[in-house]
Specification:
By secondary structure, the protein is mainly alpha-helical. The chain is 54% helix and 0% strand. It has one domain: Orthogonal Bundle (434 Repressor (Amino-terminal Domain)).
């Protein structure tokens, strides 16, 4: 696993928690992408990386799908 070189941005508040939860579940980014695509969320690897780095905003549809595939409550991602 590569470590983030850049500091986290300020475009969303869930990126760090998405990364932490994904790592807890031992899910690779490419696998998370596939899981999201099954849910109808069309996101590429660059966009996911930016989301996790908090340099890209997150839509409500993406937030809901991410919470579902990571088996975490939306509230926990937002806190």
């Amino acid at each position: 696993m590569r470590h983030r070189i850049q500091e986290l941005g300020e475009s969303n508040i869930i990126g760090k928690k998405v990364t932490e939860r994904r790592n807890e579940l031992n899910i690779k980014q490419k696998d998370l992408l596939a899981m999201l695509q099954v849910k109808g969320i069309d996101i590429n690897s660059s966009s996911l990386s930016k989301l996790e780095g908090q340099v890209r905003s997150v839509s409500d549809y993406e937030l809901k799908a991410i919470a579902e595939v990571l088996e975490i409550d939306v509230k926990d991602l937002l806190n």
